[in-house]
Write a structure and sequence with these properties.
Elements lengths: L1 H17 L3 E2 H8 L8 H13 L3 E4 L7 E4 H4 L4 E5 L5 E4 L22 E4 L2 H6 L15
Parallel strand pairs: 4-6
Antiparallel strand pairs: 1-3, 2-3, 4-5
This protein binds zinc ion (ZN) (2 copies).
The site of one zinc ion has 5 residues, from loops.
């Protein structure tokens, strides 16, 4: 019982301190620093319970496994940025605002979701230099 509580606390803490939505695998990696012998099945079981208690919100991006963010974050309207290199998802606190005008004539907008794609600062830094002198297709005489 006590071990169960510690696991759940560690999982919740991983999500709360992340400042960005985490995948189950990322949660496992973070929470494993706090509790030994944590397995992915345990992570999923506790996530399910945290979601049903409305402490954790599921973030679903198209074509992606679910990610998890704290409900406190989810309750504030925000968007996400996914890095196409490391696949990590980050929070975007800006919003284009009212998108009603984009709806076809006669339709009413109730909500919107928006995901930006690109590179995070770490992956920009890690990218190989784009220009490294001459390419293979030409010769110098
Ligand atoms: Zn990245
Ligand atoms: Zn918005």
């Amino acid at each position: 019982m006590e071990r169960t509580t510690r696991q759940k606390t560690a999982i919740q803490a991983a999500i709360e301190t992340a400042q960005r939505p985490l995948s189950a695998q990322e949660i496992l990696e973070q929470a494993s620093l706090q509790v030994a012998q944590l397995g992915i099945a345990t992570v999923y079981r506790n996530l399910k319970s945290l979601v049903s208690e409305e402490k954790v919100h599921v973030v679903t991006l198209p074509g992606e496994n679910p990610r998890y963010e704290s409900n406190t974050v989810a309750n504030h309207h925000h968007h996400h940025f996914q890095c196409t290199v490391c696949q990590r998802v980050f929070d975007v606190h800006d919003c284009p605002g009212d998108l009603k005008r984009m709806a076809p004539q006669g339709f009413v907008v109730e909500r919107h979701e928006l995901t930006l794609y690109g590179r995070c600062p770490e992956c920009i830094g890690a990218a190989p230099a784009a220009a490294h002198g001459c390419g293979s297709g030409h010769d110098h005489n």
